[in-house]
Amino acid sequence: MSAVRPVLDPTSGRADGRRVTFQRLLRSEQIKLWSVRSTPWVLGVTVLTIVGLTALFSAVVTHDAERGPDAHALAVQAFTAVAQTAQLAVVVIGALTITGEYSTGMIRTSLTAAPRRTPVLWSKLLVLFANVLVVTAVGVALALGVQALIVDSRGFSVDFSDPVVQRMVVGTPLYLATVAALAFAVGALLRNSAAALATVLGLLLVVENLFFIPWKPLSYVHPFLPSTAGLKLTYNEVTIASLNDQMHGPDLTAWQGYGVLVAWVAVLLGFALWRMKKADA
């Protein structure tokens, strides 16, 4: 007697006929993300970086009690440095989340199981964003605890009821998760790990610094670069005003700057989705 083969439902993408729902795609992407050995390592390093840098900067800026900064300066010095350094780690996981599937051919399996390409890309992005956001938020919470111990022991305090301090604390994991999404979008567009990492790191580290050259046309573009705009979430109002004075063009607020970073992600993701629909995996 011949074996009965399961019938593939072309509308479901599964051999047993069950529908491929967006919730199942999310669950699948969550499993895939954490089945890669680099994920816990990279996110673990990210948390250690957040806690370690916060402790270091808090100790340094409160070393001399007579010249110690106020609460706002203390918070921004710690979390701006945290965001600028930890973004290097989240860029790696953001790019590899999608480029790793192209290098191993796993993307073809994903698209066979779920032929509609838009949900596949969105599920990967949402799982990445949520995981980076949660892990970095935990890192920030731990860092705040360490910071409180250091600051309180030296006679300082941070007023967490201040909306500016709250925005900087919340903005750090939000910025890092969005930078991971930026790396993901570039990776989905280029489909190559080395090219994606070189592009994103070059954009965040090299191109951003080139725009500090005192040439007026560059100062009009500088406010719209992803890191310059997005990092405003981790700045206090005095620092934001100082940066705006150095640049021409619109004076972006912290949340407007974050909107610019989100726009970068949206545009690059749109191109990546267009390529995914037009070109073979």
UniProtKB/TrEMBL annotation:
Coiled coil: none annotated. The keyword rRNA-binding does not apply. It comes from the Bacteria. Keywords: Membrane, Transmembrane, Transmembrane helix. The chain crosses the membrane at residues 41-62, 74-98, 125-150, 170-190, 197-215, 255-274. The keyword Ribonucleoprotein does not apply. This is ABC transporter permease subunit. It comes from Cellulomonas alba.
